[in-house]
Amino acid sequence: MTDATVHRHRTAMVRHTLSQPMSLAVRHGVIRPGVTVFDYGCGQGDDLRALAAAGVEALGWDPHFAPGAPRHEAEIVNLGFVLNVIEDSAERVVALKGAWALATRVLVVSVMIVGAVPLDGLRQFGDGYLTARGTFQKYFQQAELKAILTQVTGVEPVALAPGIFALFRSPEEEQDFLLDRRRGRRASTSAYRADRPARNAVARPQLADRIATATDAIAGFALERGRLPHPDEVASDVHDLLAAERVSFARAIEASHDAGIDADLFARAASERRDDLLVHQALNILNRSRTAARPSSSMVRDIRQHFGSQQQFGEQALEYLHALADPQRTVTAMQRASDAGLGAIDEDGRLVIDSERVAELEGVLRCYVGCALYLSGEIEQEHIVRLDPLRRRTTLFPITGRRQPFPETVTSITIDLKRQDVIIRDDPRTLLRKADVFGMARRSRQRSIEGERRSVSSDDAAKVLSRL
Ligand SMILES: C[S@@+](CC[C@H](N)C(=O)[O-])C[C@H]1O[C@@H](n2cnc3c(N)ncnc32)[C@H](O)[C@@H]1O
């Protein structure tokens, strides 16, 4: 078969919801109303319609479906599942360069990845496969795609999910993005404020009411970052309100205190932010991040507030890394996590934990998970994480049927920190100790079902994930 018989456009499907890369970009706040988006190789344009309907200015071009459309610069450019349908590797580079040239802030690139679909019945062609429909598919390795992106753009990409990377123009924006993603226990400001004390009625009640939106914004920031905001760090409508009410920013800060920034919650937010920054910096050092030396001005303020200086911050992050390299410390931390009901230790001494609870782990373990996610990106489905710091591996098991007594997993995504790669494979297993992994009460019904099943099947009581 020759190249002429490859019908690339036949790979474009009709979408009723946003594609995975676009929806990830929305979820991470990279795409939001007000930013401009360009979809390079937009196929039938369904992503564009969905974005436009949500108020995002989005245009696109496709050599088959929209060949005459102009190729515009945009803040965010998407190159979604295009590289994998091109059979000529030189042409992939041209497409990648073309998309990168248009991206003024971020380029999101997604491809099909090895292991994502079975290859039975496909005919090998070049470095990929031909399908019965006459289309070409190349299945990339995560590390291979990362290397191509780095080589062609000169920028090291950030993994958003297996097969999906983001490339940032600004190191500061990349650092903010990484810290935001690595943040552990996200402080939900609405929950924090639920039980705040009533407004101080003595201190100018009318003023407090008139500028309530501004003081809420200031208190929200304070309880998220554990410090008060700089004027640059609050939205322009807050400044507009204060100007209209002739209230200075300093006075608004004072009024926010009066309105009740709870001291304990403020201290807790500060300690969580400190921990988040340390995990972030430790991962920057471990991953030799090229943008680590370029924190945004807002992150610099966090560092000054919580560590005194950049130097002290760096030193503490290094100390933290040394502690991380101590196997005894990780083993103890995993045992503590299991004792606290955060997950279960399996027969090989690995910690198995619900992904939703990873944020509650100690920094040393969050660092291991963070290293894994740095390579693989995030998994959208509910999943279980198996942490094996001694073998330098982390495995993610997407689960179906969380409500079932024994939820099943069919695929595993192993992140090998030694080889710096991601391996996806068919790996059917059953979750045998759901009660431990999901932190259910000692006397839960699930625990007694598990106990009965174990005594019947005489399974090893320590087994957590059993092969089907
Ligand atoms: C699998 S579809 C993806 C479409 C869309 N991005 C999505 O995610 O739904 C691949 C698209 O890449 C387009 N394409 C093929 N060669 C291309 C190239 N050199 N540059 C840009 N797009 C290309 C095809 O026409 C096809 O519409």
Walk me through the structure:
By secondary structure, the chain is α+β, with helices and mostly antiparallel strands. It has four domains: 3-169, 3-Layer(aba) Sandwich (Rossmann fold), CATH 3.40.50; 179-185 and 266-324, no CATH class; 197-261, no CATH class; 340-467, no CATH class. The chain is 41% helix and 18% strand. It contains 17 helices and 16 strands. Strands 10-11-12-13-14-15-16 form a seven-stranded antiparallel sheet. The chain has a six-stranded mixed sheet with strand order 2-1-3-4-9-8, sandwiched between helices. It has a three-stranded antiparallel sheet with strand order 5-6-7, with no helix packed on it. A hairpin with a 2-residue loop joins β5 and β6 (128-130). α8 (212-225) crosses α11 and α11 (263-286) packs across α15 (363-376). The longest helix has 24 residues, at 263-286. The chain is globular, with a radius of gyration of 25 Å. Residues 8-9, 11-12, 15, 19, 40-43, 62-65, 80-82, 85-86, 91, 95 line the site of S-adenosylmethionine.
